[in-house]
């Protein structure tokens, strides 16, 4: 779409704009080094990467991480728990492992001969591809062990938007099974046989996998996924300028300033440039770009301000306490939290029922994430950023 817009407004006739995709191979190398325990960071117990929405996590995993994994002759298994929001996350993970097994050289041919096309013969186990899940006698460890032994490769399981696993009991128990599989498969020295990568669009949500003793990956660290930076802006500028009139070029600095204002989100940057094009505002592009990016940023913050203003005092107090607990678990009904609510609202009569009702309505409004009992976080980390900068001075 943008291609058409830019083409129409700015591009000299007949110039073809290829798709723009910025790669970070060095970052992928660092991550793979960490996964195998040879980097400065040791992520052999699992890598947990968190960054806000729409900053390019999945693109990086698919376009940079998977190729790097393949180039090391490891086997990538990628599953996006947001791909099908109605499906149980546990099923999505198991099915992606089954599909990887089915795709291994030789497995399906043998199957076709022995048990029929929809079934896969794995020695002691027969996988039925027409039914969800594993055979009763087969654990997730068995399935992953088969995947490493038949492929003769280390497996890197990448679970994108991993916090969704916390939505169901089966998802939570699958996370514990993955930890058990990792411990079982990685007993010997050398490159681990099972490497695990989890991403999430919110640090506090992902933290529920690692924070407490009763959580599956207790003790692991959450790494902030590095946002696209000046190098991205410079490459994007070059790509855009190649198609602009020579006297109306953008500078990498101007583009980077706009990129920061839109929260390091590539598609927002492209959309702003597209809007300028649609409106035919091709004169003095750098100044217009800056104004539009600022407008975008202010609009997002205005929306948050009016959403927040419409909350009841107890709902605001819940948000405040939740934000003050960022990075740690938030116990909504603990004495400490209850007395905070009372202090903030100035009400002595705040009860756990009142807090419960406030949390439920915040969840219904899409402001609070509460996938199952005991797990709470803000739905959008941007709200915390806005709050800390504007309300919490
Ligand atoms: N390296 C890149 N080069 C060019 N465009 C990119 C790059 N990374 C991401 N984008 C664009 O930014 C948008 C968001 O990317 P992506 O879906 O990877 O982000 P995400 O962080 O996984 O988002 P979500 O939070 O929705 O899962 C897409 O339109 C994608 O094409
Ligand atoms: Mg994604």
Topology:
Blueprint: H1 2-9, H2 25-35, E1 47-50, H3 57-71, E2 75-80, H4 89-102, H5 107-114, E3 119-122, E4 125-128, H6 140-151, E5 155-160, H7 169-185, E6 194-200, H8 203-206, E7 222-224, H9 230-241, H10 252-261, H11 266-278, H12 285-309, H13 313-324, H14 335-345, H15 352-364, E8 368-369, E9 377-378, H16 381-390
Parallel strand pairs: 1-6, 1-7, 2-5, 5-6
Antiparallel strand pairs: 3-4, 8-9
Helix pairs in contact: 1-11, 2-3, 4-6, 4-7, 6-7, 9-10, 10-12, 11-12, 13-14
The structure holds adenosine-5'-triphosphate (ATP) and magnesium ion.
Magnesium ion binds next to helix 3.
* Helix content percent band: 40-55%
Let me know the number of strands: 9
Rg (C-alpha, Å): 24 Å
Task: Quote the distance from N terminus to C terminus.
Answer: 42 Å
Unreliable parts: 1-16
Order of strands, main sheet, comes to: 2-5-6-1-7
Global morphology? globular
By DSSP (H or I, 4+ residues per run), the number of helices equals: 16
Oligomer: single chain
- Give the structural class: alpha/beta
> Beta-strand percentage?
5-15%
SSE arrangement, N to C: HHEHEHHEEHEHEHEHHHHHHHEEH
Largest sheet: 5 strands, parallel
Mean pLDDT level: 87
């Amino acid at each position: 779409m943008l291609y058409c817009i830019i083409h129409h407004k700015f591009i000299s006739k007949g110039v073809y704009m290829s798709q723009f995709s910025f790669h970070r191979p060095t970052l992928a190398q660092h991550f793979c080094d960490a996964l195998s325990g040879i980097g400065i960071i040791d992520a052999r117990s699992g890598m947990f990467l968190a960054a806000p929405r729409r900053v390019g996590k999945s693109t990086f995993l698919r376009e940079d991480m998977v190729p790097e994994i393949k180039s090391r002759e490891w086997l990538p298994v990628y599953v996006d728990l947001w791909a099908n929001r109605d499906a149980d996350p546990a099923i999505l993970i198991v099915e992606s492992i089954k599909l990887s097994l089915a795709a291994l050289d030789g497995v399906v041919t043998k199957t076709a001969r022995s048990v029929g096309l929809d079934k896969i013969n794995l020695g002691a186990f027969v996988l039925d591809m027409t039914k969800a899940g594993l055979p009763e006698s087969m654990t997730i460890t068995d399935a992953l062990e088969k995947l490493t032994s038949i492929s003769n490769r280390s497996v890197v399981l990448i679970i994108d938007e991993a916090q969704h696993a916390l939505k169901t009991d089966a998802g939570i128990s699958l996370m514990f099974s993955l930890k058990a599989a990792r411990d079982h498969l990685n007993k010997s020295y050398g490159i681990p046989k099972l490497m695990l990568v989890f991403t999430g669009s919110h640090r506090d949500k992902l933290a529920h996998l690692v924070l407490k003793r009763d959580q599956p990956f207790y003790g692991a660290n959450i790494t902030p996924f590095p946002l696209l930076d000046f190098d991205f802006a410079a490459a994007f500028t070059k790509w855009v300028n190649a198609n602009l009139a020579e006297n109306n070029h953008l500078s990498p600095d101007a583009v980077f300033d706009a990129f920061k204002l839109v929260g390091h989100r590539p598609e927002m940057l492209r959309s702003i440039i597209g809007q300028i094009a649609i409106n035919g505002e091709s004169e003095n592009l750098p100044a217009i770009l800056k104004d539009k990016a600022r407008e975008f940023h202010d609009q997002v913050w205005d929306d948050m301000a009016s959403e927040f203003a419409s909350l009841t005092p107890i709902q605001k107090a819940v948000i405040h306490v939740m934000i003050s607990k960022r990075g740690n678990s938030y116990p909504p009904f603990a004495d400490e939290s209850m007395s905070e609510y009372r202090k903030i609202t100035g009400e002595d009569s705040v009860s756990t029922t009142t807090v419960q009702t406030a949390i439920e309505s915040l969840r219904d409004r899409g402001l609070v994430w509460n996938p199952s009992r005991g797990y709470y976080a803000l739905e959008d980390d941007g709200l915390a950023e806005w709050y800390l900068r504007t309300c919490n001075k």
